[in-house]
Structures are given as C-alpha cells and as structure tokens.
Amino acid sequence: MNHTIFFVSSLLVAFQVICSGTNHNITKDYENQIKRRRFQDLPPFKAPVIGPCVKHPENCNLSPILKAEIVSYRPAVETIVREVLDGESKGRAYKELGKFVDLFGARVSGSKALEDSIDYMLDQMKQNGLQNVHGEEVVVPHYVRGEERAELLTPRRKHLTLLGLDPSVGTPAQGIEADVLVVTSFEDLKAKAKQAKGKIIVFNQDWQGSYKTTAIYRIRGAIEAATVGGIATLIRSITDFSLNTPHTGGMTYEALIPEIPAACITVEDAELLYRLQESGEKLRISFKMSIYKLPATTSRNVFGEITGNEKPNELVGLSGHIDSWDVGQGALDDAGGTQISVEALYLLKRLGLTTHRTLQAILWTSEEAAAVGVGVADYVKRHDKELANFSAVFESDSGTFNATGLDFAGSEEAG
Ligand SMILES: *[C@@H]1O[C@H](CO)[C@@H](O)[C@H](O)[C@H]1NC(C)=O
Ligand SMILES: *[C@@H]1O[C@H](CO)[C@@H](O)[C@H](O)[C@H]1NC(C)=O
Ligand SMILES: *[C@@H]1O[C@H](CO)[C@@H](O)[C@H](O)[C@H]1NC(C)=O
Ligand SMILES: [Zn+2]
C-alpha cells in the first residue's frame, strides 16, 4: 500500500542558514522557529494587499520619505492584485503547480525525477523571459528508503504502518524484538525512566495545537528515548488528521547519546498501543529497518531573475526548495513554494513592470531527505561574499494556501 504523506518542513530553514552561515543543527533551527515572531498579519486577501504601513502609516516607525515611497507603489500593487484575482493570470500558478507535480511526482535528493524537474523549471524560466537563468551544481546525498517494518507481537499480532525518519540509523540486520513502553510526553518518559531500559519507547503525544510545537517529539524523540536506555523509538506521526497515515521527516541525534533507530507510526496505532498498555497488557514489538548508503550525486540550485533597473547589485530573493520527500509528491512541500517564487516574477514580466533591485527566484535543491539544507549550505559557502547583496529573502515552505501573514527572522532594524 502506498501511504502518501505531506511533511511540512522547517519554514525558513534556508533563510536562517543564509543569515547565520553556521553548520546546520535541526534542533536549533526548530528552536529558532518557535522563537521567530510573527511580523504582521496581512489584511484579507480579497482586498488589494497593501501592508498596514500604507493603510496606517502613522503606526509605522519609518521615515516620511520611505512612507511616501511605499504609498507611491499603490497603483502597481493594485494592478498586480487585479491581474491575479480577476485577470488572465487568475488560477495560473495553481494550474502550473498541478502540471509540475503530475509530471514529476516525488523528487527526492539524488533521484532522476529531481533532475528532470530542474531541467523543466530552467526551461520554464527561459520561456517566461527571466534573465540570467542557470543551474549551479551541488553534490547531494542520494536518498533511498530501505526496508521498514514493525509488528505488534503481544498481546496480539498486528502490522504497524510506519515510515523511518532521516537520518535515523537502521536496526541490526535481523531486526529488534523487545518489550515496549508507551509514554505521552517527555515528562511522562522521565517519570517512567526506570521502566525504559532495553525497551522500544513509543511516543503517543497528543497533537500540541500546531505542527511546530508537536514536531519536537519527532526531532528529539530518539535522543530522549536513548537517554533513559531505550533501544529504539516509534513516534506517533506529527499530524492532527490520520487515515492510518504515517508521516516521515527529519530527526536528530546528540553527541555522547547512543544513536537508536527511529520511525513514525500512525496516530491510530500509537493510541492503540497506549490503550493496551493502560489496560495492563504487556506489549512486545518486532522492528526492522535497513539503511542504504549510496554514493553522492550531482544536483543543481536553480536561479532566474528580473534584473533591477536602478540597483542591479542589490538582490531580493524569492525561494522554495524543489526537492521533496520520497513518499509523497511534494505538492506543498515544496513545489508550492517554488511555483509562487517563479510565478511572481513571470507575473511582473507579463505586466511589463520593472523593479529597482534585482528580483531573483531561487529553487534550492536537496533540502529534505538525507540531510537538511544541502543546496542552501552549498550556496552560502560558495557565495559568502554576496550574501550582503540581499536586501531581503522570502522563503516559502509551510504551504501555499491563502496568505495569512509573514514570519520574520532577522535583526530588529531589519524588521
Ligand atoms: C544543536 O542545538 C541544540 C539547541 O541549541 C544544542 O543543545 C545541541 O547541543 C546542538 N547540537 C550540536 C550537534 O551542535
Ligand atoms: C481563501 O480566500 C478566498 C478569497 O478571500 C476565500 O474565498 C476562501 O474561502 C479562503 N480559503 C480559506 C481556506 O480560507
Ligand atoms: C554584489 O555586489 C557587488 C558590489 O556591489 C557586485 O560587484 C556583485 O556583482 C554583486 N553580486 C550580485 C550577484 O549581484
Ligand atoms: Zn520543505
């Protein structure tokens, strides 16, 4: 059976990596996300989308000159909004996204589908009149999911639907068979630490109200389980809606703490295991997961731009990641983000609007499986001298539904 998943990954990872230039640390990224403040809510999408500073300039701590400049863009903004909502461009981005996803499906790091989809986007950028369209080669991991299975043995036999996490280690070749401890939180695990040794730790955490606040169980589950002597961990998938649907995603290990195998099981199975344990049953599970290490391959970060007519050396980036996980088609994670990045530029081209600064669409490669942010990390290393050219970078990786606001990371002054 094919279990389709959506993994909405770390919003703004690319941006944070650009800003910090440090080595990637998924736990830290996650903490930064939580800390990141909501910059401002956008007005309802149906009205011309003009920021609060235009509607209520008195509330904005900007110079009068800047305020006047912002107000002067009103006609251009209204033209854009009219074209998108009622003009010939209406529905275009969505239709193009659908076509892209149907043509290429999953685009996991190292796959031919990913490279084919990159060729397609390069071609589309040229056809739509962008300038300086090019790919920049990056060495990326080649991710192939191995064999993954788990079965409840006691008190009855039941197949457990699961997906391994990345970069989890595998189990020994013959698999693991062990007793089980189900916990509902990290606190619950600490309270039951004495019972954890040698067991498979199952996390049956409730949905914590949002993806961001719940995902910490997937990200740190293996660390917390191993800390109290667990030998493997099965974590309830990070979702508030399930039809026996397992989700994959990134996880992390910490130095000096044993690296134990980690996978996500479904909400239904996590709840079942919890109920069985609470009614006094002794649980036993067998779990087997193999990991393939394939040689690295070459992929590309993709660029296309509208060169600025006044300050061509100053850049505004619009970006998303073109790769996806292997078990879904990455329609929203993150073909949606890449599509809106290029469509914004195509739209300006069609309307004949020009910009002071250079607008650059960037489609990052290899953000997801088999390492996080490989494409963007390569870019940062290669272009460290040019990072200062960016006036702003937009990165979309949390779904392209109705616009509800902007999350912002950066200095107070930049904010
Ligand atoms: C990653 O960041 C977390 C939180 O800031 C920190 O506790 C951890 O030690 C870091 N891990 C590594 C490998 O640097
Ligand atoms: C998105 O916005 C449109 C236009 O305002 C509205 O009709 C629609 O209901 C909104 N959809 C969601 C999911 O909020
Ligand atoms: C960045 O700015 C420098 C100095 O203005 C310029 O020489 C360089 O071409 C710029 N790079 C890009 C990619 O625009
Ligand atoms: Zn993503």
UniProtKB/TrEMBL annotation:
Q: Which domain of life is it from?
A: Eukaryota
Q: Which GO biological process entries does UniProt record here?
A: peptide catabolic process; proteolysis
Write the signal peptide boundaries. 1-21
Return any one Pfam family short name: Peptidase_M28
Give its localization.
Endoplasmic reticulum; Golgi apparatus; Lysosome; Secreted
Report keywords, A-Z.
Carboxypeptidase, Endoplasmic reticulum, Glycoprotein, Golgi apparatus, Hydrolase, Lysosome, Metal-binding, Metalloprotease, Protease, Secreted, Signal, Zinc, Zymogen
- What range(s) does the Peptidase M28 domain occupy? 301-408
Q: Which PANTHER family match?
A: CARBOXYPEPTIDASE Q (PTHR12053:SF3), PROTEASE FAMILY M28 PLASMA GLUTAMATE CARBOXYPEPTIDASE-RELATED (PTHR12053)
The family classification in the record reads: Belongs to the peptidase M28 family.
Entry protein name? Carboxypeptidase Q
Source organism of this protein record: Allacma fusca
